Amino acid sequence: MRFQQLLQVRRLASAGATTLMRPRPTTGTTGTTRPTTNTTAGITTTVRTMAGSGAPIPELTQITDNVQRGNYATLTDKDVAFFENLLGKNFALTEDLEGYNICFLKRIRGNSKLVLKPGTTAEVSAILKYCNERKLAVVPQGGNTGLVGGSVPICDEIVLSLARLNKVLSVDEVTGIAVVEAGCILENFDQKARDVGLTVPLDLGAKASCHIGGNVSTNAGGVRVVRYGNLHGSVLGVEAVLANGQVLDLMSNFKKDNTGYHMKHLFIGSEGTLGVVTKLSMLCPHSSKAVNVAFIGLNSFDDVLKTFVSAKRNLGEILSSCELIDERALNTALEQFKFLNSPISGYPFYMLIETSGSNGDHDEDKINQFIGSGMERGEIQDGTVTGDPGKVQEIWKIREMVPLGLIEKSFCFKYDISLPLRDFYNIVDVMRERCGPHATVVCGYGHLGDSNLHLNVSCNEFNDEIYKRVEPFVYEYTSKLKGSISAEHGIGFLKKDYLHYSKDPVAIGWMRDMKKLLDPNGILNPYKVLN
Amino acid sequence: MRFQQLLQVRRLASAGATTLMRPRPTTGTTGTTRPTTNTTAGITTTVRTMAGSGAPIPELTQITDNVQRGNYATLTDKDVAFFENLLGKNFALTEDLEGYNICFLKRIRGNSKLVLKPGTTAEVSAILKYCNERKLAVVPQGGNTGLVGGSVPICDEIVLSLARLNKVLSVDEVTGIAVVEAGCILENFDQKARDVGLTVPLDLGAKASCHIGGNVSTNAGGVRVVRYGNLHGSVLGVEAVLANGQVLDLMSNFKKDNTGYHMKHLFIGSEGTLGVVTKLSMLCPHSSKAVNVAFIGLNSFDDVLKTFVSAKRNLGEILSSCELIDERALNTALEQFKFLNSPISGYPFYMLIETSGSNGDHDEDKINQFIGSGMERGEIQDGTVTGDPGKVQEIWKIREMVPLGLIEKSFCFKYDISLPLRDFYNIVDVMRERCGPHATVVCGYGHLGDSNLHLNVSCNEFNDEIYKRVEPFVYEYTSKLKGSISAEHGIGFLKKDYLHYSKDPVAIGWMRDMKKLLDPNGILNPYKVLN
User: Fold this and answer.
1) Quick check: helix, strand or coil at residue B192?
2) Chain A 466-505, CB below 8 Å of chain B: which residues?
3) Could you read off the pLDDT of A61-119 as tens digits, one per residue?
4) Nearest alpha carbon to residue B97 among B121, B78, B80, B122
5) Do B451 and A256 touch (CB under 8 A)?
6) Distance from CA of A199 to the nearest CA of B (A)
7) How far apart are alpha carbons A197 and B316 in whole angstroms?
8) Which of A403, A475, B69, B400 could be bridged to B39 by S-S, CB 3.0 to 4.6 A?
9) What was the ipTM of the complex prediction?
10) What is the pTM of this model?
């Protein structure tokens, strides 16, 4: 039977660009772009995540988490007058601030009384200089799509929104280098790049809302890291405003620039605690002429690993995503969202493998070779492969709805970890064993190609028994394997007490020294990253 | 005629893997690996470079460059006894130190009285702790193949050789992640990677001598950056020993690891002035099944640019090198090294374009499409393309001998700059005009795909008139275009007075603060990077 399927694959492959291992349902979502909801969630939190418009407004985090306010000045009318004078009243907001105070997951709620919306780097500089002298705490905010409470105030910090710094300043189609302001929405940036045949080497669920400056400040990951690497490689230059208002010009439009210390990296992934990114240059690859997606079913994690190795070997330079979804994660999403259609069912593991290449015929050939040989060896059981943009989107939709499916109806303990691939999935089985019937679903999905697992433990409501079985075990387990307790979401407010599981005291000590050097008054994004 | 050639290309392409646009001479160098002499030189220096075994031993740099010795302690017998006790007499050398004191180009000569060769990170730590307490200055040294005098003492610094920390600790063929000690020679590291089907994403002329730790410490560039990016993207983790002897463990085996500040980047490209890299992990791509090289002739730099854009579009994901050589640079090498055979001649510009892919047939198809369309448009005049390993090496040999050809017989002012591609070659013409008959050769070559130009001005001997015409003009010109005055070679000793042409005072001020924080006594690699 497998052999017949294989023959069918090859026969269809020679007939056209879209290859179906099984007939696919034609119903489902349609459209020309990927869905853009913030669905890559995998946060670590021990309280209920309450995403969705219907979720209630949470209590103030300062109260729920018993946060001791730092020794900062309190905002006065005189301060507000200064900022109104600097920016104009329209850009120094003191009313209707809820959207700025509450995080995407409605887990964190601050109590800021002032939101500032500068329109230039010079205004950002003037704001920070003033705040530093007055010892007023500030939280930089981009699209506020972060998942660890890094972009909202914890107490009464002033919110510094980068939303008006939203221009794409230049895109060079020859070199692929784009210069963009921090507040530009990722999708808008990508569209400008696509207009000249390029693409931004970063793609994630929140792309319709998140800002490129926030992406850089959090070293955002997403589904293309397996191909294009992380932002430390793609970002060529950064302009950042320091706590004292100094503008640090580390802009560069070159892949090769060895003039002194490479300090820009301090602002990539430090979550706005060392400086505020206002501008950056990024290397954008050419858009791929052909994009294909395969959705395949496998019988064991061992087969998943073998298929990943085969994908790297056979697809080589065109492999652009390699995602894993286990059966329980997929089924939860399918039960929750009836509009989703999975082309295959009944397997313990599923992989979504995407290719992006410059020649559709060549890519199709490689994909068929990859799938055919995987089926011959019995590693791949069944699946669908397509190059049709609408169908590509349908398959991506399945992957992207998985996180939402898990948090929609039940309480969910969620973890975003990097683990050695050989041990990648064990923790899901171990956790299922530990939780027993207390948990309704224990599942795993994520960016297999980057060793990044989203582990989820669901139950009907917060359950102290499960909590104790899950934490700190999950961190200790990750730490023992020298894994990362935060693969792509960062530390923010929610994970700062767990940092020591992935970094030793010497490293954390130097992080503190770095913070003290660059922000001696600690006004930038307090209560985050370091505890 | 072009059309006939094009037909020939296509006819040959369909007949086999090696395509010749013109018959190629069969004589020349042979072998299975790329040449490994340090031939990517493009240093900035106003004194004669004296590479080659026959060059005389230079005067002490402290004298020639009038260097004021820093306020460091002077080595005593007691100090030597401490180190001998720590490492054993065989690894605390006090005699025959010339090779450690003189730089590769025989331009810089220090006067160190002690070379230490630790065998473990703990020994590196003990050495630095002692030196820091005693205020003894130290220069870390890898393969000593640097081109800006960064790896040799300037006065009497102790040489800390990493040569014994030379083990490849692990190579994971599934994830592509390798862990290696700093003193491992790049070629040896690459061989270990190739043993399991991977390759180190860094290739440069000095690979038979340079150490991977030195590569990381200098953020070495080379000929593969156009494909794999620079080391900030490839290096996943670093272990560095700080000036006070603390071991900073920033090792990570994951592409995604957002646990705190990304401090490892401070040690990538800071040339041993902030810490000594002792170990690192690196992401290694799979070896390519097919490697092809085209060597093509073009009539104008405008055609070069068009061909580069076409290469990015048509070759896409398989493009792995894109090098430029101008006519004068090529001819100088051909005159100097009679064993070189250029398959074509008579064009003002030449490009070496390499592809590396996972499917030889597909790659050949893409290359033929690229060349055929370039010839049809009249952008590519003639050339050779081959996938035969021996012939690939022959063509690379031409590119790699160009720098040596220029310094072999004449005095050479050499610059390693990044410039916007649209202005990339203008400076060569401008400089030729400025120098007039005073210069024997003014030429340019380099890594076009990374906007990295090696500008060379040759004359029979050092000529003050030319010097004044070239400097500081070349830096001012680069600075006005917001270029980089050191693309890949770093700052070291030779360029520290020019840093301000590419970095503003605020950035340089923060570099000083960073240095002061991490190395308050300034014992690590003094007289380098910052003046």
Assistant:
1) helix
2) 482-491, 499, 502-504
3) 999 999 999 999 999 999 999 999 999 999 999 999 999 999 988 899 999 999 999 99
4) B80
5) yes
6) 13
7) 12
8) B400
9) 0.91
10) 0.91
